[in-house]
Design brief:
Length: 369
């Protein structure tokens, strides 16, 4: 059976200057739509504010409006001092070239941001845009705890949908509590959209033993397919959102979702075996979203440094890992972190980033880097 798939426009192909490559992006979009998919997800902050313009150039200018659906977000922490939500929204329409937005979300709702969201009445704002016909559906993406989700859904029954981070490694993660958030959304009968099903690509790039476990069970299936089928197979899931950076990822995702088959009982047992193995590794489950980058006064390449730390824990001080550390620390070493905590406050995964950078610094010192 076919399930809805949305192309997340936060990990698009880029050139050497980190500019979105429109030619490659158009190729991905054309393949996506040729195979019957039409949903796209963007935000003002994605790709260093390039993503909404890519929507305009690669989708809006090239396809009739009825051929696609766009989700965009009110990122409350991105509204400049002195600017209103109305101004922020109008600029999004202008940059993206849209007359209306199909799904508009309050972005990354969690405990830290919630008081400001309530004080500035942002839920009322997105409902107002829906009433005006400028938004077709109003909802929110959520990175908080299930208690807050329950409170929001009880107080704002007008919400059309909730977008949750769900993947098999976070399902019972005590920090993320994916299962409990999912069950809360189901309790209120809300349409569920899923983000980070492959956890920023981490669940497609498993250590060798993890790959062996999956390939032994189903040699013909991609590693990423297990994560996608787990998330999309849950009851009540309306749309699975996946960031795709190249045609190989696009073809794999489209094939999985076009003729969708949820995991069977034997495959779920294999996934339990994989979880047991992965939980033995002290991995840092960073998704590479990059929210921390704008907050770091030293401009440390935090996601890249954490990838080095994970690789070092799995594979040791191989030459390519040592070289990766040197490349990421050309300006500042990991132990230059001043532990201000600003990165921690914006991390959707609630990671203690300074502590992880300290661990990487210790590893580097032990390996004379």
């Amino acid at each position: 059976m076919k399930k809805e798939l949305a192309l997340g426009m936060m990990r698009l192909p880029t050139d050497a200057d980190k500019k979105i490559d429109y030619i490659q992006t158009c190729g991905l979009i054309d393949y996506f739509m040729e195979h019957g998919f039409r949903r796209f997800d963007t935000a003002e902050v994605y790709h260093g504010t390039q993503s909404e313009a890519a929507v305009r150039e690669c989708i809006v200018k090239r396809y009739p409006r009825e051929a696609f659906e766009i989700a965009d977000k009110l990122s409350s922490w991105r509204i400049p001092e002195g600017e209103t939500a109305e101004q922020f929204f109008n600029k999004q329409l202008q940059v993206s070239g849209l007359e209306y937005i199909d799904r508009y979300l309050l972005h990354s709702v969690e405990e830290r941001l919630y008081p400001d969201i309530i004080e500035k009445r942002y839920f009322d704002f997105i409902f107002e845009k829906k009433a005006q016909g400028l938004v077709r559906e109003a909802g929110f993406s959520f990175h908080g705890q299930p208690e807050l989700l329950d409170k929001i859904l009880a107080e704002y029954p007008e919400v059309d949908f909730v977008q949750l981070q769900i993947n098999y490694i976070d399902w019972n993660n005590p920090a993320v509590r994916s299962r409990e958030c999912y069950e809360t959304a189901r309790k209120y009968g809300k349409k569920i959209l899923i983000m980070e099903p492959v956890k920023g690509g981490l669940l497609a790039d498993l250590p060798a033993e993890g790959v062996r476990i999956l390939k032994e069970a189903a040699p013909e299936r991609s590693v990423a397919s297990w994560a996608i089928r787990f998330a999309a197979g849950l009851d009540g899931v309306d749309t699975l959102l996946s960031g795709m950076s190249n045609m190989e990822q696009m073809q794999d995702n489209v094939a999985i979702m076009k003729d969708f088959e949820p995991l069977n009982e034997a495959e779920l047992k294999t996934l339990e075996q994989l979880r047991a193995f992965l939980n033995k590794e002290p991995m840092v489950w960073c998704t590479g979203c990059g929210y921390c980058l704008a907050e770091c006064s030293l401009k440390l390449p935090i996601p890249g440094l954490i990838r080095v730390l994970n690789n070092a824990r799995i594979f040791g001080a191989l030459p390519q890992i040592r070289n990766g550390y040197k490349a990421h620390t050309a300006q500042h070493a990991a132990d230059d972190c001043v532990r201000c905590g600003r990165c921690v406050k914006v991390c959707p995964q609630h990671l203690d980033i300074p502590a992880h950078l300290a661990s990487l610094a210790k590893w580097a010192k032990e390996n004379s880097l």
